[in-house]
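We were asked to recover a plausible sequence for a given structure. The inputs and outputs are reproduced exactly as logged, with field labels preserved.

PROBLEM: sequence recovery
POSITIONS: 175
GIVEN STRUCTURE:
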């Protein structure tokens, strides 16, 4: 006969000791650990800001014009923000009492080696949606030349007439 079967109390003590040893062995895994972190997650907004070399003043004016006269002026628009922006040119508060086609404005982007036409037509006839000028990168500057021309063939009835327009530059972040 086996020793444990002859001594049941000792068998229980041996079984209890084995059980405690098993629990201690299983519980000893608490020495393992792991940790990871992603600190300092911060966020800030960019800026969409522009500068206008003639902000608040006319780009081009002309008085006492005779048929065939032209006047030109230039303005530089710079995206001084940190975001790229899609720019457009708007015409506001426009009035033109000249005959049809007798007082026109030509707007050109003269930033590159060759001027690029942006608009050519009557003062006061820029589309209500404005003229798309494309995307300006952060820090990018473009120069625009405005040339107002009094038609050479203007009739006598255009004497003493006037035309005016405000030009406004709008930008939204480039998608």
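RECOVERED SEQUENCE:
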């Amino acid at each position: 006969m086996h020793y444990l079967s002859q001594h049941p109390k000792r068998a229980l003590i041996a079984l209890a000791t084995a059980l405690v040893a098993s629990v201690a062995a299983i519980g000893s895994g608490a020495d393992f650990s792991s940790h990871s972190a992603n600190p300092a997650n911060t966020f800030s907004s960019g800026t969409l800001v522009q500068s206008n070399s003639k902000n608040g003043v006319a780009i081009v004016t002309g008085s006492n014009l005779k048929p065939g006269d032209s006047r030109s002026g230039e303005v530089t628009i710079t995206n001084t923000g940190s975001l790229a922006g899609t720019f457009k040119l708007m015409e506001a508060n426009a009035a033109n009492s000249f005959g049809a086609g007798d007082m026109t404005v030509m707007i050109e982007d003269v930033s590159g080696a060759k001027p690029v036409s942006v608009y050519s037509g009557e003062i006061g006839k820029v589309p209500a949606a404005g003229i798309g000028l494309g995307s300006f990168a952060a820090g990018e500057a473009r120069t625009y030349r405005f040339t107002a021309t009094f038609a050479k063939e203007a009739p006598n009835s255009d004497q003493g007439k006037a035309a005016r327009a405000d030009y406004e530059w709008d930008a939204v972040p480039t998608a």
